[in-house]
Amino acid sequence: MRNSAAGLPAVNSPLNDSGRVNAPSTQREPNTETWGPAALEERRERTHNHLAKIAARRESWINRNKYYYELLNRLFRFLVEPEKKVLSVRCGTGNLLAVVRPSNGKGIEICHEIVDIAQQRNPSFEFAIAFPDKQEFQQAFKPDEKFDYILFNDIGDTVDVLQALRNLTPLCQRHTRVLVTTYNHLWEPLVTFAEWVGMKVPRTEQNWLSTADIRNLLKLVGFEALETHRIVLLPKYLPLLSGFFNRFCARLPFLSKLCMTQVVVARMMPPPVLPERLSVSVVIPCKNEKGNVEDAVRRIPPLAGRTEIIFCDDQSTDGTAEEGEFASRETSGQVSTLPQAIF
Question: What is the mean predicted confidence (pLDDT) over 274-290?
């Protein structure tokens, strides 16, 4: 992977002192390209430094967009059952974790500046510092620690999304729900413009994954995607228009694909069961079918580790029950006969 910032002057953040994104510099240093794991680590460092710089002002951007965040909070209150054990990965200042009202809440963020703010705002929750796509992530949890819900909030600037999802699997049970939030890639020009003019929290390089990408990555790790929720066609509040677009138009079949924010809900797939550990019962209702019992037993193929054939005899008078008992002896108990119909 090539470092997308290679050749540009070294900066800690795309922000200037006014809170807007700096325009790209036309002066370039000598081309010093970084490849492979070193390039990925540099991108993590840029993201860390950027978040550390904007940590003190993050709440001010959230306050500027209260309407959008209220729509997002409403969706998560619907998806997450209260009084459950919840993990928020890339938790920010802990607002979303507080919204879902967990009985036991834990947040993970990548820089201590934001974690300090989150801990001050939510002293009842536990917070830790770790990159979700690195080995250090597992060290932030106790052995055998599990959660009912896992909220993955900022997947867009996660360097290795596949590894980050893989790191979540030891924290999941079969009933655990993983909620992955991302922006619709169709909104990339508008989101970039909003960051540039200071209307939105600025971010570093984004993955801009589609819901199909996220579903495929989840499947590779061992999750199954259950549903996708799409919200927000108009992120700013305008009387009458906001309600019409976000509550009505956003639910229409085609317009929903244009929504700004997407939440993919997934769970762990059950472990595969070996065919030899399965058993199948074949129930055959019959009456006066003596001549067909042998053919039925012979023509039914092995369906699993053990196949059981049950003839349900409805008081036959031609010896069907006796023929079934004979077949049972010949197949070492694979065939059995019910002497009277149970239906």
Answer: 84
